Amino acid sequence: MRPLFDAHCHLVPENGKDTTSQPETSEPVAVCGRLLCSVEPDEFPRVVAAASDWPGTRIAFGVHPWYSAAAIHADGWLEAVGAALQRHPSAWVGEIGLDGLKLDRSSMEDQETVFRAQLRLAKELDRPVNLHCVKAWEPLVSALDDNYLDDGARPFILHSFAGPYQFVASLAERGAYFTVGQLAARQDSRKGRERAALFPEDRLLLESDSFLVPGKDDTDELAHALNWLAAVRGIDVEQLAAILAHNSARLFPS
Question: What's the per-residue H, E or C state across the chain?
Fold first, then answer.
């Protein structure tokens, strides 16, 4: 089987818990690389340090919507994101976005302010973005169109997309790639299966969304998601692995 690319993962927080699964599958998978996302500027140095000794690691710098209120009331958060991106010319912007379920942590006003500023920065520096969205799809699309896609489609990742079906086609036209991972595969809901079957074949990616110890991939979650997605789409696992390898190589060229 072709090695898999993990299109969305994180570092285990300092003093946090490693969520990497122990292998359960009889057919372990190999991992060729990963997009290691950050959630706030304090995490940037750890992400850079992990990537330096972890072959195949791509990095993303950004302020997650849950941390928007803290960022917006601090000095220099956007400058910190911009400086990190300037130091790492191949870095993405992410994980950024909007979350309508976490308004107790950051108001939607603060989230939109932080999100739109990062989209403008990503466009200015010509960087792709990795997006989080929960129950805020219309504001997210509006922000994308106003700040990132106003001059045409650009590639971006919608991490663990769980939005309304009608958004899939329009987001794909805008340049979206869609990751499938443990959230959909472990829940195995009817809506999750229907949604995963809708994603365009040339925009499919796999993710673990695990919090990893540097140098240690979550092969169990990737293998589980791969097998689940192959069954949902009615294709052979090897065929799906080849499709995913082609898509990730296009989005993350060597």
Answer: CCCEEEEEEEECCCCCCCCCCCCCCCCCCCEEEEEEECCCHHHHHHHHHHHHCCCCEEEEECCCHHHHHHHHCCCCHHHHHHHHHHHCCCCEEEEEEEECCCCCCCCHHHHHHHHHHHHHHHHHHCCCEEEEEECCHHHHHHHHHHHCCCCCCCCEEECCCCCCCHHHHHHHHHCEEEEECHHHHHHCCHHHHHHHHHCCHHHEEECCCCEECCCCCCHHHHHHHHHHHHHHHCCCHHHHHHHHHHHHHHHCCC
- How far apart (Å, rounded) are the C-alpha atoms in residues 247 and 254? 13
Predicted TM-score of the model (pTM)? 0.94
In this predicted structure, the answer to whether residue 249 has a pLDDT above a threshold of 50 is: yes
Amino acid in the structure at residue 37: C
Q: Is 67 exposed, middle or buried (0-12, 13-18, 19+ CB in 10 A)?
A: buried
The half-sphere exposure of 144 on its side-chain side, counting CA atoms within 13 A, is: 29
Structure tokens at 71: 């960022």
pLDDT in tens, 64-86: 999 999 999 988 999 999 999 99
